[in-house]
Structure formats: structure tokens, C-alpha cells
Amino acid sequence: MSQTLTPSQLLEIRRVKAMVAGAGSTINPECFLGPPGPEGPTGPTGDGTGGSGGGGGGTGYTGPIGPTGSIGPTGSGTIGATGAIGATGPQGIQGVASTVTGPTGVTGRIGPTGITGPQGAASTVTGPTGPFGTGPSGPQGAASTVTGPTGFTGRTGPTGAQGAASTVTGPTGPAGSNGSSGPIGPTGSGTQIGVIKVPKAATNFNFSTAVASLPSSFGTYVAGGSDAITFTINLNTSTYSSSNLPFFMMTSYVYSTTAGYINCQRQMGVQTGTAAAYVTINSGVTTLTFNYINKTNFPYTDNDSEGYALYIYLQIIN
Q1: Cβ neighbours for 211, distance < 8 A, ≥ 6 positions apart
Q2: Lowest CB count within 10 Å: 80, 214, 232, 271, which one?
Q3: What is the pLDDT of residue 281?
Q4: How far is 268 from 264, CA to CA, in rounded Å?
Q5: CA-to-CA distance for 29 and 299, rounded, in angstroms?
Q6: Phi, psi for 276 (deg, rounded to 5)
Q7: Contact yes or no for 48/63 (Cβ under 8 A)
Q8: Phi and psi for 257 in degrees, rounded to 5?
Q9: Cβ-based neighbours of 64, under 8 Å, separated by 6 or more
Q10: Secondary element (H or E) of residue 261
Q11: 79 and 30 Cβ atoms separated by less than 8 Å
Q12: Res 247: pLDDT
């Protein structure tokens, strides 16, 4: 059954088509459904089968529900006007406080000076007493006839000037105790003695355990090997130089179990190599070297009762 549309309905249809064309596939087609149509008529009541008669019989079965009536035609209502704005919703949850401090604002300008307030009330609190001032001395009072107590003894005055020398000789005082001995003075410039005592070794002499006593102004003994033929003395460079060579006399003894103490010979001229012991001084005048002191040149040597086989005595002149 057709129905003639009014001009306003046709206009509305055109507007909706335009909306559909412009929205593409994003428009919701449910927005074009009209309001539900009127309810169809109630279907006929079904015929239930009655129960058989009897005394006190139960209620008969309810007949089946009739078929649902057909849906009426869709209404052609227009789109209603826009509804009124809803009420303001409740306030949202408070956001988390920011941990970032914003920049300091610009300091405002200093305001004008306020007017002077009224004079305050006088204080009822008395301030502390100030220090005593020193005024001028008053006139001399009359002499007292009462003797006051003796005052404290005043401090000792400065020492007076030296009096004139006395012409009277006083008695001699008791002798004072002897003072402690002073330190030993430096060695004089006279003759000094040094000695070096050397034990024997299996083959030659033990210069590592030798005992030396030398003036410090002369030099220092340098221990040699435990079975060696040479040793050195480091000369005192404050005493000796190329312009002041060490001047000393030397006497040596070796001990023999058969002959006793044998005096070692001294000789002049060129050194004789390994055939005899000799003494040299280096060019810098810093080292005195004794060489070729062996049992070939000093045969039949042994330690004496003091435990030494070789004695070297130095008489130092300068």
C-alpha cells in the first residue's frame, strides 16, 4: 500500500542521502531507524484440552501460546531536534603533583615606603645600670686620727743601679763540686796510629771479618772477601787530594807457628806483580788499595792466640 510523501519528507530524504554520500562507510545506519511501529493484534487463544471430570481433579494444562502477530510497517518519523545540553559531570580525579619546579618568577618591583607609625608607648622596664664614669679627684680630706690596718706588701720594685765596687775582700767561699767531663776534643795534628788485624783463610786471608781501627781523618776500611788477597781503604777526601797525598809509615807482621811474628819487608822501585804485595792510590786520591797479600808471599802463616794471622800498622803523618 503506497503513501504519498509530503514535500518536507522528501526534503528530509534528500538531506539524509547527502549525509550518507559524504560519510562513506563511517556512518551508523541505525541512526535512520524510525520509532517502533504499533504493536500488532494479539493472536487467537489456543484451544486447550479440558481435564476429565472427577471429584477434586487437578487444573487442566494451559493451552499453547498462539503465534506472534506480524510486525507492523516501519514508521516514517523525522529526525528529532538536538537534545538539550546535559548537566555538568562531577569533577575529575586530582592529577599527580608535578616533580618539576617551574622557573622562578620575575621579582616584583619594591612597593612605596609605608607611612611612619605612631610613637610607641614608653617602656616600663628599666635598663641595666651603665658603667661608672671616672670623675676628677676631690679635694684632700682631713687627716684621720685613727690608724688603719697595715696594708698588703707591694710588689718588688725594679733592680737598682750597680753599686760601687767594695774595697773589702770577703771570705773565700767553699770550693764548688767538679763539673762533668766535656766531650773529647778533636785529634791533634800530631802522629796518628791505625791498625788492621786479619784472620787467616783456607787459601789466603779473610778480609771480610778483619778488625780495623783507623782515624776518621785518614779513611774507612772496606771489607774484602772471606778468602782473598786484596782490600781497600776509602780515603777522607776532606783531608787528601792530589796536592796533599797521604803520608804514612807502615809496618806489617805475619804470624808463623814455627818462626813467630815475621816483619814484612818494604821495597822501592817498580811493583813486582804477583811476586810481592804492594799498595797503590788511584788518580782521584780517594782509594788506597792493598794487593797480592797471599800465602805464597807470606808462607807458613796461622792465627795467633788472638785469632789473627796478619797485622798491619799505619803511622799517619798528615
Answers
A1: 196, 197, 308
A2: 80
A3: 93
A4: 14
A5: 140
A6: -155, 155
A7: yes
A8: -70, -20
A9: 46, 48
A10: strand 260-263
A11: no
A12: 93
- Backbone φ and ψ for 87, nearest 5 degrees, come out as -65, 150
d(CA 34, CA 70): 18
C-alpha 231/C-alpha 212 separation (Å) is: 12
Question: Alpha-carbon distance 232 to 221, whole Å?
Answer: 6
The one-letter amino acid at 182: G
Residue with cell 535512520: 32
Q: What is the value of pTM for the model shown? A: 0.41
Contact 301, 256 (CB under 8 A): yes
For 244, which DSSP code? B
Cell of 156: 718588688
Residue with cell 477434586: 56
Is residue 288 a contact partner of residue 219, using CB atoms and an 8 Å limit? yes
For residue 127 the three cell numbers come to 635598663
Spatial CB neighbours of 259, under 8 Å, sequence gap ≥ 6:
300
